[in-house]
């Protein structure tokens, strides 16, 4: 289980600014994110983010919570 620092997720909005949900789990475990910056889709359609606090790139699950 990941420990969850405050605001360690990517919030998703629709085109009108309505919040749809969150992506990612907070923490330092594999697949978790502590500080998501520079977020983009790669050529395979996966959402990628830099996570400078964990010193890595993270591929985020597209499953919203």
Structure in a nutshell:
With 65 residues, this protein is mainly β.
What does this structure look like?
- Helices cover 0% and strands 37% of the residues.
- The two termini are 16 Å apart.
- A hairpin with a 5-residue loop joins strand 1 (10-13) and strand 2.
- The strands form 2 sheets. The chain has a 3-stranded antiparallel sheet with strand order 3-4-5, with no helix packed on it. A two-stranded antiparallel ribbon has the order 1-2.
- The protein has one domain.
- With 65 residues, it is mostly beta strands.
Overall mean pLDDT: 79
**Distance between the first and last residues' Cα:** 16 Å
Whole-angstrom Rg: 12 Å
Q: Helices and strands, in N-to-C order?
A: EEEEE
Counted by DSSP, the helix tally is 0
Structural class: mainly beta
Helix content: under 10%
Largest sheet: 3 strands, antiparallel
Low-confidence stretches: 1-5
Coarse morphology: globular
Within the largest sheet, what's the order of strands?
3-4-5
What is the total domain count? 1
What percentage of amino acids are in beta strands? 35-45%
- By DSSP, the count of extended strands is 5
């Amino acid at each position: 289980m990941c420990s969850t620092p405050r605001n360690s997720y990517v919030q998703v909005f629709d085109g009108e600014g309505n919040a749809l949900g969150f992506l990612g789990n907070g923490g330092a475990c594999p697949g978790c994110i502590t500080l998501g910056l520079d977020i983009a889709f790669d050529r395979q359609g996966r959402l990628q983010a830099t996570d400078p606090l964990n010193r890595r790139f993270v591929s985020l699950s597209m499953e919203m919570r």
